[in-house]
Each structure stands twice: as C-alpha cells, then as structure tokens.
Batch of 2 targets.
Target 1
Amino acid sequence: MKKLLRNLYSISIILMSTSTVFGQAPKVVELNSGWKFKQADAGQWLPASVPGTVHTDLLANKVIDDPFYRNNEKEVQWIEKKDWVYETTIQVDDQLNAYDNIDLNFEGLDTYADVYINDSIVAKTSNMFIGYQVPVKYYLKTGENKLKVYFHSAVNVGAPQAKAAKFKYPADNEQSEVKTSIFSRKAPYHYGWDWGPRLVTSGIWKPVKLIAWNDARITDTHVQQLYLSNAMASLEAIMDIESDLDENVQLKVSSPDNKFEPVYMSQYLTPGKQSVKVSFQIKNPERWWPNGLGEPHLYKVNMEVITKRASDQKLQKIGLRTLQVVNEPDAMGESFYVKVNGAPVFMKGANYIPSDSFLPRVTRDRLAKTFEDVKKSNMNMLRIWGGGVYESDEFYDLADENGILVWQDFMFACTMYPSDSSFLANVKNEAEYNIKRLRKHPSLALWCGNNEIGVAWKNWGWQNTYKYTQADTAELANGYRKIFNEVLPQAVQRFDADRFYFPSSPISNWGKPEDFKKGDNHFWGVWHAEMPFEDYNTHVPRFMSEYGFQSFPDIVTIKRFAKTEDYDIQSAVMKTHQKSYKGNGLIKVYMDRYYREPKDFQSFLYVGQILQAEGIKMAIEAHRRNMPYCMGTLYWQLNDCWPVASWSSIDYYGRWKALQYFAKDAYKPIIVDPEIEKGKLNIYAISDLREAKKGELKLRLIDFKGTELWSKNQPVTIEGNKSQVVYTESVADHLDKADKKSSLLLVELVTADKQSAKNILYLDTLKNINLSKPTISSTVTENGKRFRVHLSADVLAKNVYLLLANDNSSAFDENYFDLLPGENKIVEFNSSLSLEQVKSNLQVISLYDSFKQKESTTDKEHKDKQNIFDKASGLFKKKSEKEASSDKPVVPEKKEVKPVQKTETVKEKDTTKKGGEEKKKSIFDKASGLFKKKDTGSSSTPSN
Ligand code: BMA
C-alpha cells in the first residue's frame, strides 16, 4: 500500500510540473454577515455591519445623529465609556467539519476584545493594528455556533493605568482631561487631534473569516529582490507555511502570464510554522518607476505548496526597483534623499492622515479616487503619518499601481509612551506584523519610528510643563530608546533589513540655521510662529517632510455640516469644526498681511483658500529651486478625516481646495519659477525628468489691461533632474520701468514635445496690486458626460473661482487661476446637473469680488452688467449697506489656551518662560538675522 501511494505521489509530482494545482485548496468562509450588537450593560440587540464601528452602527440604527453634523460630536462622547458586544452565528456543516484545521481570522479588532465561540473564550486582543488568527476547530460543533466579540471601552482600560502612572504623559492632542491614548495600541487620532474630532470608537474594523485547511497552508508570502540589473533580476520567494505534515511537499513559483520560467522545488516540511524559500529569476526585467519617471511596472508571482492531497497558493504582485534613502554626512551637512533605480529623485507629495474617523468607511473606491488625485497632481510620495493607522492592503496596492512612494511612520506621535515589558511586547508584535504585511510593496520607501517625538522631547518643554523629576526624565528617555532605538529597528532588521529606518521625523528642529543643513525638517515657523510665507525662501532644509497652512473647506462642504445661521467662523458650529485653538486667528493674521479684507463669510472661505495655496506654492518652489541641496517636499496635509478647517488640500468629501490645484502645477515635472534676487530677475527652470529637453522660454511683461510692455522669446535647454537659471536680467532693464501695482510678468516654457510650464510674477504684493472689476464672459457647453466653460475677461481676473454651490459632485479640472486679458480659457468639469441648471447656477467669481471696497466710477459701469454674487443659490447675495455694517468683524481669536489642547503653544515657542511677543522675537529677528532662538535642550535626550 505504502509503495502504491509513493508511486501515485511521484506520478502526481510529474503531473504537477506540467499543470497547476489540483489538490484540495483551503476553504474560506467569510463571516461578515448576520452580526448584531448591543451596549454590554443595557439596551437591545440591533443589526450591525462588519467591518464596522460602534459609532457607525449606532448611526445606521438611528440611535445617534451624524457625529459630523454641526455640534453632534459632543453628543456622542458617552459611547467611548461603554463596553459593546457583537454577535453572529457560524454554520458548520459536515464538509467544513471534515477539514483537519479550522482557523478563525480577524484582520482587525479595535481594540480590547474578548472573542468567544459558544461561550468559550478563544482570544483576548489588545492591539488594533494586528490581525489575529486562532485555531478554533476544537470549539466548533456541527450545526450552529455562536461567535461573540466583547469590546472593553479603551478609555476605561486606560483610565486606571493613567491613575497608577508615576507621571503624566504629554499627549497634547488628546481631547480629554485624563489622557488614556498612550496606553492603547489604537489609532492616536481617534482621541482628538488639531484637525480631528474625538471619536474613540471600537468594533470589528476589518473583515473576519474562517479558513479550513488540510496538510499545509501558506500564511504569508514575500519576494526578496537579491540582485537587479537590466539583464536579470534574481529573486527569492519566501513562503510562511503552517503544516501538519512531516514529509516532502512540492513548492512552485510561477508567472500566471508567463513572464518568467516556473520553478519547482521539493521541500521537507515539519509540523508547525516554517519559512521556506524558492529562488527564481526574471530575464530582462522591466522596472518599477515612481510617478513621473516611467511606468510602475508590476509582475505577478504565484506561489504554491502542493501536498499529496491538498494545495494552497497565493498570488503576489511585485515591482522591481532599487531604492536607497541616502542620509549621510556630506559637504553641506547631512543629506536626506531617495535614490530610485540608481538616480536621486526629488520627492513631491504630502502627508496623509486616515481618510475617515470611522475607518471601515474608507472603501477601495475612495482610496482609488485619492490616488487618482495624487497621481494627477504630479506627486510621487505620501507620508503615512504616525498618529493614524498602518493603512489597508488596498492602500499600498494602489500606491504600487500608481507609482506613489510611501514614507511609513510607525504609529507613534507627539507624546512619550510607556515602556513596561507588556507594552514593549505589544509594540514588537505590531511592528513585526506590519513590517511583514507592508514589505511586499515596491512603493514602500522607508520606515520611520515616530512623528516629532524626538524634537518634542528636546524642544517642546515637556519636562517643565509636566514637572518631570530627574528620575521621570531618565525613565521616559530610556523608554523612548527602547521603543525607537531597539524594538522597532530590530524588527526592521529582522524582517526588512534592506529598508531604511530612522527613529523620528524630523531629524532636525527648525530653530537654528544648522537645523536646515541636516536631514529632514518640519518647518512650522510659518503658521505656529507667524513667520511670513517669504521665510519659506530662506528656511530650506535638505528634505522638508512637513510644513503647512490652514484653510476652511469651500461652501459646498460647509453646507453639508452647517446651517446658514452657522456661517460665521466664530459660531459654535464652525468652532467645533476648527480643532486648532488658534487656527482662525492665525488665518486672519496672515490674511491681513497678504489680502484686503474679505467682505463676508463666503469671501473669507475663498480668500482663505487662495492664501493657503499661494503660501504653500511659495514653499514648493523654494524647495524645488534649491535642489539638489533640498531633495523633497511633503506639505502637511493631503486630506481630512471629517469636514473641518485644516491644513488639507483635499477636503473630507474629496473636494479640491485651491491648494490642490496650485500643488498640481507646482509639482509638474518641469516648472518655471521667476524670482527677484538681489536686484535681478532670475528665471529658474526646474526639471525632474531623467533627460534634457529643448524648448522655448517666452517672457511677456503686460499691464492688467493686457497692453504689452516688453516681451522676449528665447530657446533654452532644460537639463534633466536639475534646477537652473535659464534667464537673468537686471530688474532695472524692464521690470522697474513698469507700474508695479498694475503689471505682471508672464513666464511660459514650451518644450519641443509640448510639455508646458507657466508662472506669473506680480511686481508688488497681492494686497497692493490694483485690481479693477473684470467683466468675465463665460459660456457653458456640454461635452459628452462632461461640461466645458469658455472664459475670457477684459482685464486681469485674479484667481477665477468656478462654483456650483448646489452640486456636491461638481469638480473642475482647473480653478482659482488667473485669467489674463485677451486669454481664451476652456475649463472642463463634472456636474450632476443638467446643462440648463449648470448655466443658471454656475458662479464665476474673481478676487476683486471678495473685497470690501468703495466702487470706483468705472466699476459702477460694470455693476449692472455682472452681479455675480446674486445668483440663484443666494449664497453670495450682496448685502445692503445696512446689513453689511452689521457684519461681525472677523477678528483674530484670543490666544487663550484650551487646557486639553496645547500642541501649538508648546511647539518651538514654549521653550522659554517668556511671553508670546518676546518668544516670537527670539525665533525670528529680521533685523539681526533669521535664526536667533536657541533650543533649550534636555539633559537626557533620546538620540536619533
Ligand atoms: C504636525 C503634525 C501633526 C499636526 C500638524 C499641525 O506636526 O505632525 O501632529 O496635526 O503638525 O499642527
């Protein structure tokens, strides 16, 4: 008999080498339906969604109102203090029961869960970032079984720990008197942030399934790239296998679309878990390229284990590229740049936060739209910031497919953490689980231990604020070292040794000139220290991984969470949707510097968005202009987790703010950047392309009415991967001869292969320029499923804003642009309205319309022709003189410090006990040089 079996086995091996799997594959039973839930100590069972959260289930059952609407956030705070129970049934039939092994697989439980099958506890969890797998065959009976998950309130679990702790942990962003976020391995932003509500949810936030299997199954795969040249890629497929067997099995690595030769290998398995490796090669490999430099080519690799009676397989997509993060001393200080496929690549992108307070709502479709926007906006990197979550598999798949590199923080931000042995063990598991999950992705560029804890510990004055004794300080610093200099790097070393790890971003603070020579930097002098946008030009680091400026979402989004009576930034509702305690005040400070006073709420929103966009554009151009000294720019922040005033460029509903349009332009592969430097006009051409391009530079000095004062065309060669001055002249030559308040220099560059770049230099500040009321003609036509608006203006129309206030789904390809006199512009857009509705609702606004001003005689002539603020929707209705005078003035908020939200007060500025004014002076002293402030260091500093 044994002999017969052996013969059959060798026959099957021969068959296997020519065909594919035929043994019995694992059976997967999805367990995402039939769930109900209830508050543990009260109430009744209600239907639940899995994946889901308690809050979204309560909302679906109409127990609570939408937490994002008006002030409802406050009304739902009771939920975090309750325990919640979820239940469903598992049907086990004979077929399922016949499998030797049945595993219960939770991809994510938020956070403290006891899992029961038929009243036997099978698992206890304490980390929302980990997937749990439990062998449950022993607990299951044929027929109906009960699966119950009991969630303990994370806040209640944390509270006694906070009480017992020897000292207070900073957690400045947590919106609560008693800080519990530090004790739980749960998304920090759930507890509140300076752009996020406090919604400490719980639930089964990722899918659940049963996996029934015989003999052996693959639990994880990874393809290690050993060597890559244009002729050959040498690779190693690593399969993590769980086995019942003590014998030889067959392994197979193959290409479903025949891109490489399959490899078969015989492997001896022992009972239990093991990693096995199969080497294979791909001839003449196509490389994976980041967005803008080439195709992000992916290969499919199928990995199989084949036993006598069973088989299992997993398909993985891989990308072949070399990538190094070069962070080493150099002639200018200490570099920080990314090299892809052998060449340095300038990183352009933004910081990414979770796209929803309720994570299961972030569907693949929403992520796909985000990546479409990111790619379209010429970005090549996103930083997954450490106060959110390790993103979903879909997120990284989309990053791979779109050529978007990922800077991955571990989930630690802006506070010190415990470091007892159980906390460290939890962190170790979390790191290993997520490193193994994410290392598969060619988009993954680097690992970073935490967000800002290194610089905070040195500079934010926590030691004084929290009155730490020497012993506390030593213990906290030691805990920091254990997590960020031991546990995390050791995990990276063990499972992803080829990837760069560094303990904390930024490497350098921003208080001193030396800071800008070393590593990455989060420059918050603009915003937190009220330094002018122009300081972006003088504060250029080696890699700018955070900087930003706030704005409100547009009126279309505001209408979704606020009533008309809330339309005032000082209203209770608008303040609930502004989590930075001094955000509104700072927006106003900057707006007063750069723009005339907007005449009403809607104009404030519009001008605020332009303010943010112009400021960040200035920064992006400064960073790119200074390449290769600076090799990356990631502004804070791409997106929102709810509708709110924030630093985002795309709002919660996916609507582009002015900044997204500006970033898209400023991130183009080739840009032109006119700068006035030491009495000279210098035109920079900056290219991220791999090869040089020939083109023509066109300069036109015109007045706002369109009269040409001077022009010049000149052939230019734009070197690849370089910033260079392609034209220079003295400002005395032409610019000084023009009326500065009413002239502009238009700079255009067109390459032989029709890539174009355009920029406009205003000769005076935007506040000072003399705009007159433009007559903008607009004609709307239908173009298939899209619309087109044809625009032209008699005089300069600054920041033309196209708005369909009553259409949530409207999206314009271009917006907030300057329309020059004589220019004919066509903008395509989407709308769910009919052509007639679009025609009667489309508002075309320009900066002139936002001012509070007296009308000139010429303007009066325009008045009857075009009163764009008086459209059907009534949103921009012009107020009568009487009404206007009763408008509340928009005044800077008092800089009162909310007790539970102090991040901004302690950042950078609170390093001394001086008053605000003195502090500001010490940070930024124009007269005596830019960097005056000294860091007040702590004696025991976690080293980077
Ligand atoms: C950065 C981030 C966040 C914060 C943002 C705005 O430092 O790391 O912590 O939301 O600043 O203050």
Target 2
Amino acid sequence: MLKVTIAKNEQEFDVMAAWRIIGQMLKKPDSVIGLSTGATTKNMHAIVSDIYGKYPFDTSQVTLFNVDELTNLPRSYAGCCYTMIAEQIARPLNIPDERFIMPKTISEDYESECRSFQQALEERGGADLQMLGLGYNGHIGINQPGTPFGSETWVSPMDPVFEARVRKETGVPPEHQLGGLTLGIRTIMHTKHIILIAKGEHKAEMVRQMLKGPVTEDIPASVLQLHPSCEFLLDADAGKYVADMAE
Ligand code: GLP
C-alpha cells in the first residue's frame, strides 16, 4: 500500500513537510537526514529554521546532507547546494561543519568524491530520512530518466532544461561546466524512510505517472513505489490526479 498524503493547500504542505523534519530530529536526536534543494523545499526549510529559532530543540547530534550537488561550481555561487542548505537550514539550526556532510564542488577526482560522500553516510549507518523533490521529468536527486536503478553515487550529466534553469537562477557563467553529483538510485533506496515532496499544478502529471504508472527507469521517481517506507506528501494541486490514493 502506497502512503499518499495530500495537504489542502501549499501553506499546509509546507508546514506538514517542515514538521516531518522536526519530528525526525525529536524522535531520534542523532538522526542522519538527507535534504533536497529547489523551490519545493525553500519554505519548509524556512519554517524549520523559524520554529528552531523560537523554540530551540536539540540538534547537537543531528547530521544533515543534501541528496545532490553541482560539480565545478565554487561554493560562493548561490546555486551551490552546499550554500543553499547551509543558509536555509544547517546554520540556522547550529549544525557544525563535521555533521554537515557534502561533497566538494571543486575536485580533481569526482569519482573519489562520490565514494567518500557515500561512505561518510554509510559510516553513520545511512540516512534515517531522505526528503526528495520531484524533477519535472521524474528525476530524483539528479538521476535523470534512463539512470539504472542499480546506480550508486555518481556524477550525472546535466539535462539541458535543468542546466538552463540552474544557470538562469544562479548566474553561473558559461565557462563553468556543470555536472550533477547525486546519490544513486540504489543508494537512495537504502534510506530507512523517504518522503517524496511535490507541490504545484506543474507537477501533477508527473506525480500521476510516478504513482499510477509502471515502475520504469524512464521515470526515476517511479522506483519509490517499491520502497518499503516511503510517504508521498503532496499539495492539492500536485496531487489532483492521485486524490483517490490519499489516506
Ligand atoms: C533539482 C534538484 C532536485 C530537486 C528538483 C526539484 O533537480 N537537483 O534535488 O528535487 O530540482 O526542484 P523544484 O522543487 O524546484 O521543482
């Protein structure tokens, strides 16, 4: 049985998603939590940080990381996932550098960066919770359509639409050739609990394919149908074709 939760509007969605993150930290103070960047997660990170600012809870043992990162991009660029997560949530929650695990964005050897990133998470017992956004074409992390389900952490080529968006939103100059360092699909599937989050009408058709279509490498997010503990948290717009599946 797939667990589908539909919030009645965007505000309720943001608050529900924020409380999923806070709830995990309260339930297990040494949680390892994977986050995602993007428009979907911005408000929820702000809500988590606001609540912590007002009513601090214990974050001294929490480990945070992001599911993906752009390569060949200095951390000084706003579009760098390290920088977004640091500013939106890791620093506001006083997470020290040693428990904020991110691959380097500039490296001579990205394969070794991938291995160390994955290994650092494995040494901590793997992620307890992974918050996952949904790409416009069904990608998760930066695993684009066609990525083998058996993939481990790797550097994926950027698809042109995603790359154009990153460049537009973050002002990355053309001389920076971008790649997408991402936890692989197999790595993601090893997470104890996953919450797939999607909001907005522009995600509705992809949500339908992810949940009602076949499990296929053409829609990477469809693999989540096979995860033993995955919640699909949607707002009413994103969930309009799957309302019959909601609890
Ligand atoms: C990018 C990120 C993903 C994110 C996705 C959704 O591809 N690499 O991690 O989940 O965008 O972004 P948005 O929430 O802006 O739609």
